[in-house]
């Protein structure tokens, strides 16, 4: 038994020594592992703390956003309820206003009926007054005719009385005139009296109408006074009836006076509390109404901005449609734009042609002026030759009569001397009267103008006149062509202006299209940003959930490792205590 026990103790000592060695090795390994794990755990802990802080901040932001959204939802619900209440109140007030307006409309209808009745009455009175006026006018006309007749009779009578030839007329005629005068005077007096009576009747009628109106007013006032008197009498009798009741109440009043005072005080206190509470509610409702009014104003501003934006968009669309229509119209007009260069070249050619035509016209006018000057010179020469021929014939006739002119008219071999004026024959190149001068002279002088010269001059004059007419016609044609060219140039200038306007419109359209594209691009960017923000939010929420799960797992692992470490430490402590306790007897 002792040997076995010793063996067992030896084995136990060996096992303990091995366990001690292994525990030391394990402690070294654990120390190494703990150092590495501590560093790794510290870095992971820092990362986790950063991630957790970021996630906590993000969660805090999300909670704040959720709280704000919930608050907004609550406020919007309250606003909706308040708006519904306001709508109900407005509908109620609208119904009341409608009822009031209906009552007013009924009253106005009744008033209209009354006014129509008064209008008919006034129209009847007006018709009656018009009849009276017409009757009075007729009476005035009758009185005027009577007055005119009497005036005529008086004039006749005065004329008859003033005529000196009628002084020797008999007494019968005087009696007749006196009778006529007396009758006319009587008729005049009757007419005057009739007019006076009629005016007095009219005045009396007006006075009677005024008295009737005043009497009706007095009667109305009397009826009102009687009603007031009856009402005062009724009140007086009622007060007299209440006097004994008040006396009876005055006898019983001292007994119940204290109770009534207590009840009145209690009621007053309760009423004051209710008034205070109602005032508080009124203030709260006023503040809510102010808030609602502000919210309503904000909503109205937003709606106005939205309406303004809608109107602007509608206006832009209309302007775009208008510009598109203008572009279509101008595109139809721009089909002729390709011929602008050709028209310019043709206009330049026409300008050159007009310039050349003007030069030719000026040359022709210069030629015509020269021909006119030559014609004037020829006419002067013709007149001069005619006068000379006449003087020569006269001198020759005188010489024949006197017997001194019998010499040969062609001395020296048919040669002709100078004319009888001592002058010489001058050829001006346009002398159309040479033939007449030669015919008037007795013989044709040697070296003078031939007989066909007059016909040549006439042909030249006719040719000059025809040329002048032709030039004038050409000038008119050139003027018409220049007018047509100017008209075409104006049209082309207007076309060019239209083209410039089209270019401006195209530029504005391009600008508007660029602005619309930029707005579309901005809208797409905003939509993409909102989409990306939603995706990021979803991703961050998923990552947050995953990180929270990882954190929970890490916490569980840390707790499990901490519990295992504590158990190992406890075991190692127990083993160390046991090893030390066993090592002391071995030593």
Low-confidence stretches: 164-175, 400-452, 580-587
- Measured by DSSP, the beta-strand proportion falls in under 5%
Derived from helix and strand composition plus strand pairing, the structural class reads mainly alpha
Separate helix tally: 6
Portion of residues within helices: over 70%
Terminal residue distance: 24 Å
Mean pLDDT over all positions: 67
The helix/strand series, from N terminus to C terminus, equals HHHHHH
Gyration radius, rounded: 71 Å
Q: Specify the biggest β-sheet.
A: none
Count of strand segments: 0
CA-based shape = flat
Coiled coil: 12-132, 268-363, 461-488
Keywords: Coiled coil
Protein name: Centriolin
Biased composition (Basic and acidic residues): 532-557
Question: What does this entry look like structurally?
Answer:
By secondary structure, the chain is an all-alpha fold. The protein is built from six helices and no strands. Among the domains are: 1-162; 174-239; 267-296. Helix 2 (171-333) crosses helix 6 (453-586), helix 3 (340-402) packs parallel to helix 5 and helix 3 (340-402) runs antiparallel to helix 6 (453-586). It starts with a helix and ends with a helix. The model is unreliable at 164-175, 400-452 and 580-587 (pLDDT under 50).
